[in-house]
Specification:
heterodimer; A: 304 residues; mainly alpha; MetI-like fold; 0% strand; B: 295 residues; 2 domains; 14 helices
Chain lengths: 304, 295
């Protein structure tokens, strides 16, 4: 304690400089952690935090036994797996193509175009979906009808939405990931390629034997890092595409949209907090697990 | 000397051109349908639906929007205010904290770094956070709710710390020997040397504020306080129709534009991002390649 006070006096200015940030995280991150207590209550607005009846693990039991938690977790995990694998593979392919192509203007243009979706808001993605698929006058239903298909209402079927959601997720992250992989390719030494050229390796052999093996560590690292967040859902994406359309929840509801609805639609504070706490806790365990694996294989890349 | 291109290279390049062109078109397609959608006459949409290329172009939606643009102007004001204040304040707090955590002679830097990092690993979740802001901080329907909760992010702070760590220690040491205080070192030496980092992180913050609709959705109830993206969301969801005073001075077969107005709003709201895009993109690419993959 004495040493802390001495330190405080000596570095007064530095403590003052970091104090607002420390206060911010105390207020917006640590104090809400006390609020996970809601998960163990049957929350009532009169009772508040500690005045609501304590129900133990009832909320969790209900979520689990009703099958909701299983569905939500399955949806969240499966969507994220597809996002991660498909997204990273496409980004990797784009980066390899971009690195090897000669035309500078073409490379610049395509890279700019592919990065564009990263900068727009998810509300605009919602506008795209409305324009493309809306039941009355969307581009796609109209086009299908013109081609002689029977009328198809996208909002009455769950099947297409999985693909629509995956498409827009990959679409939004393509440019960002490509830049990361492109930077990794640029850091591979020219001497490998020169040597391979002299030995008569063609471009496919060079990509297969040099670029890809050299990128595998980055690829695996990025995938492992994303796996740590596999329980975290992309609320913006799902909410802007599917919204409150209950017809589609079976295949499009994730933990984050469920928690949001508990708060804003059903006012089921206890149940929503319980689902959120489940997500946070398992997320933490996952990150610790992933970090342990990375630490075992390549300590430099471990998160902590 | 002319180097003969190998046949395999030709095949590779052809595949690359086709693949990248197709992906680029897919990236542009949604933007195209929004723009043409906003330029299609309402009657055509009702009769035939949205099309990639309309039969006829019409500026009715834009004309209707700009006969009474108060709502859009107001939302622009809110968004610009929130983005500017939030980004400047956030950048100040982030850079000060990042500076302290990057100082090797600051005894508690590891402990405090973990204190900040831990918030990315575990959180109380959306609902306790919401209840805190509404019930305890009384920020419901206040501009503060749009700015304050987004001021700092642990990721940006860690990124800033790493940027500043790459500045040689000797600079701080020699300034200290010359008798400079900790704040003066930050202000006069560290900040100017971290301009690339400040620009990248500042752009991240500004983009997050500009594109934010979620906090407004949770906390803002008064229409005059809606930021742009939330206004667009409301209009798309048809929950609120953009107030337009359409008098009979337009063509006789004129239908009040609703579908086209949605698309025109989307264009007007996204416009600035697209205009600034070449500049934004250059900074982002630079920042991304300077900063490491991990935090």
């Amino acid at each position: 304690m004495a040493s802390f006070i001495r330190e405080l006096a000596k570095n007064r200015v530095m403590f003052l400089m970091i104090a607002p940030a420390l206060l911010f995280f105390a207020l917006f991150s640590y104090i809400p952690m006390i609020g996970v207590y809601y998960a163990f209550t049957n929350y009532s607005f009169d009772g508040g935090l500690f005045g609501s009846p304590f129900v133990g693990f009832d909320n969790f039991r209900f979520l689990f036994e009703s099958g909701q938690l299983v569905t939500l977790t399955r949806n969240t995990v499966l969507y994220n797996l597809v996002f991660i694998l498909l997204g990273n593979s496409l980004q990797l392919i784009c980066a390899i193509f971009l690195a090897e192509l000669p035309g500078k203007l073409f490379k610049k243009t395509t890279q700019s175009v592919m990065f564009l979706p990263y900068f727009i808001s998810f509300v605009l993605v919602g506008a795209f979906v409305l324009n493309l698929f809306s039941s009355e006058n969307g581009v796609v239903p109209t086009l299908l009808e013109q081609l002689g298909f029977p009328p198809y209402d996208f909002y009455m079927h769950t099947a297409p939405w999985k693909y629509i959601i995956v498409f827009f997720h990959v679409w939004k992250g393509l440019g960002y990931g490509t830049v990361i992989y492109l930077a990794a390719i640029m850091s591979i030494g020219d001497e490998y390629y020169e040597a391979a050229k002299i030995d008569g390796a063609n471009i496919f052999q060079r990509v297969r034997r040099i670029t890809i093996p050299m990128l595998v560590p980055t690829f695996i690292l990025l995938i492992l890092l994303s796996l740590g967040g596999i329980l975290k859902g992309q609320f913006d994406l799902f909410y802007q595409i599917v919204g409150q359309n209950g017809m589609l929840f079976d295949s499009t509801d994730i933990i984050d949209t469920y928690v949001y609805r508990s708060l804003a639609v059903n006012f089921d504070i206890g149940m929503g907090t319980a689902a959120g706490l489940f997500q946070s806790l398992f997320g933490l365990i996952l990150v610790l697990g992933v970090n342990y694996i990375i630490r075992k294989t390549n300590e430099d890349y471990a998160l902590f | 000397m002319k180097i003969k291109t190998e046949k395999s290279t030709l095949v590779f390049n052809a595949a690359a051109y086709v693949f990248l062109t197709l992906l680029s078109l897919l990236c542009l397609l949604p933007f195209l349908v929004i723009i043409t959608g906003s330029l299609t006459p309402e009657t055509e949409i009702i009769a035939e639906g949205f099309k990639l290329i309309p039969n006829r172009f019409s500026f009715d939606a834009y004309r209707a929007m700009f006969t009474n643009p108060i709502q859009i102007y107001r939302a622009y004001e809110v968004t610009i205010l929130v983005t500017v204040v939030g980004t400047i304040a956030g950048l100040m707090l982030t850079s000060m904290a990042g500076y302290v955590l990057s100082r090797k002679d600051f005894k508690y830097r590891n402990g405090l770094s973990f204190y900040i990092y831990f918030t990315t690993l575990f959180s109380g979740g959306l609902i306790p956070w919401y209840i805190l802001i509404v019930n305890y901080l009384n920020m419901k329907d206040s501009y503060l709710a749009l700015v304050v909760p987004g001021l700092l992010s642990a990721w940006n702070l860690i990124l800033m710390k790493n940027f500043m760590k790459s500045i040689p220690d000797s600079i701080v040491e020699s300034a200290k020997i010359d008798g400079a205080g900790d704040f003066a070192i930050y202000l006069k030496l560290i900040l100017p040397l971290s301009t690339p980092g400040l620009a990248t992180i500042g752009l991240f913050m500004a983009l997050a504020y500009w594109n934010d609709w979620f906090t407004a959705n949770l906390f803002i109830t008064t229409e005059s306080k809606f930021p742009l993206q939330f206004l667009l969301y409301k209009i798309l969801a048809s929950a609120s129709v953009l107030k337009t005073s359409i008098a009979g001075n337009l063509s006789p077969d004129f239908k009040p534009p609703t579908e086209t107005l949605k698309m025109a709003t989307a264009v007007v709201v996204t416009g600035p991002i697209i205009l600034l895009y070449p500049f934004l993109q250059r900074f982002f690419v630079k920042g991304l390649t300077v900063g490491a993959v991990k935090g």
